[in-house]
Recover the amino acids of this structure.
């Protein structure tokens, strides 16, 4: 895998060790520009640590990182103003309102003039559905509202890349829909989005690409539709004569069986046109033929179970994503990145 200008984020051989414990191990990641990539994995799989290394908040033990074509962390000052990120919850002043907090953040945005700040704050609050709570003190916000305010801070100006760590954490269904709507708008505007999550349904509903992390390793990566299609090569045929269909297919050495919803055909070793050709030549009426896709839950279980089988005798110790080296502080910086920075 090589870095190209078509990559918004790229990592090669990424590794992070905390006091002798491996948190991320030899991760390769390639996020195409314009994609919405779901970084999927259970808590402790290395998602947040990987994101922190992408943003330069944590120094890798090994490997290389590029963000928008620039080496990280050396290119951070040049690149991060074009990046918006929400990592492990935002840091705001509890006795200031949501609007006042965003105004303080906006003053650190190099591309925002003082005259443009009120409009930018108003638009950001509206995008995340917090206009009605703009004047409420931050300490009175629910967890979901705090998440949305952090997202608003990341979106005060247009960003080429937006990185969100568990953005629907603490949100009710309506709040989660708002986040999905914002992500869809970002994609339509041409931004690249990386969303880390352990919620399979959220990733399947939101993302165009996926990378599955398991015990600090990427065990599957690619376009979501391709991964789901490859995971279950089955054709479902609707026909009024299922017995005859199965018989004719088996005569052509095509594996098939009768199911409650039609005839299921194994496409592992045969192409879909060959199946339909065999049925037509046998005079079998076909009402519908559609390829079935694996659900993301099934795909996730398959790739993680395969990884467990391969490493049954050697399971590396893991640390939670939120176990970090001492940090110098937290908050939302002028580059739209909310999170903690590791001390050097």
């Amino acid at each position: 895998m090589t870095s190209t200008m078509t990559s918004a984020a790229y990592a090669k051989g990424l590794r992070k060790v905390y006091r002798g414990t491996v948190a991320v191990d030899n991760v390769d990641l390639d996020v195409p520009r314009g994609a919405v990539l779901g970084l999927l994995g259970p808590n402790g799989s290395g998602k947040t640590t990987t994101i922190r290394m992408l943003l330069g908040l944590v120094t890798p033990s090994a490997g290389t990182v590029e963000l928008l074509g620039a080496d990280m962390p050396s290119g951070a000052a040049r690149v991060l103003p074009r990046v918006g990120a929400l990592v492990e919850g935002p840091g705001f002043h509890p006795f200031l309102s949501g609007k006042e907090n965003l105004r303080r953040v906006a003053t650190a945005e190099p591309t925002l003039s003082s005259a443009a700040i009120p409009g930018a704050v108003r638009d950001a609050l509206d995008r995340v559905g917090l206009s009605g709570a703009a004047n409420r003190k931050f300490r009175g916000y629910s967890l979901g509202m705090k998440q949305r305010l952090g997202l608003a801070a990341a979106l005060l100006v247009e960003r080429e890349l937006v990185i969100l760590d568990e953005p629907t954490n603490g949100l009710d269904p309506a709040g989660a829909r708002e986040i999905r709507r914002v992500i869809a708008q970002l994609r339509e505007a041409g931004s690249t989005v990386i969303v880390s999550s352990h919620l399979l349904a959220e990733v399947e509903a939101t993302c165009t690409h996926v990378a599955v992390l398991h015990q600090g390793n990427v065990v599957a990566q690619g376009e979501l539709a391709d991964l789901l299609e490859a995971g279950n090569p089955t054709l479902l045929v609707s026909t009024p004569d299922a017995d005859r269909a199965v018989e004719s297919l088996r005569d052509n050495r095509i594996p098939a069986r009768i199911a409650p919803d039609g005839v299921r055909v194994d496409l592992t070793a045969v192409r879909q046109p060959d199946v339909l050709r065999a049925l037509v030549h046998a005079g079998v009426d076909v009402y519908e033929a559609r390829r079935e896709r694996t659900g993301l839950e099934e795909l996730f279980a398959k790739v993680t179970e395969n990884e467990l089988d391969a490493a049954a005798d050697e399971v590396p110790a893991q640390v939670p994503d939120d176990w970090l080296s001492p940090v110098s502080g937290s908050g939302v910086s002028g580059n739209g990145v909310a999170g903690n920075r590791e001390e050097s």
Observations:
- The chain is about 30% helix and 30% strand.
